[in-house]
Design goal:
Elements lengths: L1 E6 L7 H15 L3 E6 L11 H5 L12 H9 L2 E8 L6 H10 L6 E2 L8 E2 L6 E8 L3 H7 L2 H9 L9 E7 L7 H16 L2
Length: about 200
């Protein structure tokens, strides 16, 4: 399987980065073809400029600023996101990546008066999230898990109609002990084994 791994954490020594490394190693052992994007390491700019916004609805022109990222999305069959949940949602860097990369015509057809929006990333058949959160599970669910919904409902609408989704989260990360973290690493490895 062709897997795009998107990592978003500013600290290269964070648990999120450790989990991403675990996933990358497991994917390689299983023989998957992998591309890895570390948004902070590459210095991705999450801010859409005025000029970029003005060209947002112009087919072709809207692809130029993010051509490499679009090439990765068109190449892959699965996208695996690794990020921390901050304030119940996506880090601003990752939200900016979605804002800038998921452009009309390249990833979806705009809705019309008679037709709904239609995704064009038919090659993507799996979306997975591995995240950590400070809040307890119940509280996260009461707030509505906006990060989870943005990717597994919003982005999924752009993918193959039978796109599978996975969500693996470690809540209460701020008070998690070593044994809890080790068990979570095992859960992440189990997720990769299902690919």
């Amino acid at each position: 399987m062709r897997v795009l791994v998107v990592v978003c954490h500013p600290d290269p020594e964070s648990f999120t980065q450790h989990l991403a490394a675990t996933s990358l190693a497991a994917l390689a052992r299983a023989g998957h073809d992998v591309r890895h994007t570390d948004l902070y390491a590459e210095g991705f700019d999450p801010v859409m400029s005025r000029q970029e916004r003005l060209g947002y609805h112009t087919p072709g022109d809207n692809e130029i600023p993010i051509a490499g990222h679009l090439a990765d999305l068109r190449w892959c069959e699965a996208v695996l996101f690794h990020y921390p949940t901050w304030w119940f949602g996506l880090p601003a860097m990752l939200k900016g990546w979605l804002d800038r990369v998921l452009v009309p015509y390249a990833t979806f057809a705009l809705p019309t008066a008679t037709e709904p929006m239609r995704g064009t990333l038919e090659n993507i058949r799996r979306l997975s999230i591995v995240t950590t959160a400070g809040a307890p599970t119940l509280y996260s669910k009461l707030v509505g898990e906006p990060g989870r919904r943005t990717i597994l409902r919003g982005m999924r609408a752009l993918c193959h109609r039978r796109c599978r989704t996975d969500y693996v989260a470690l809540h209460r990360i701020d008070s998690a002990d070593a044994a809890t973290c080790a068990r979570f690493v095992t859960r992440v490895e189990a997720l990769i084994a299902r690919y």
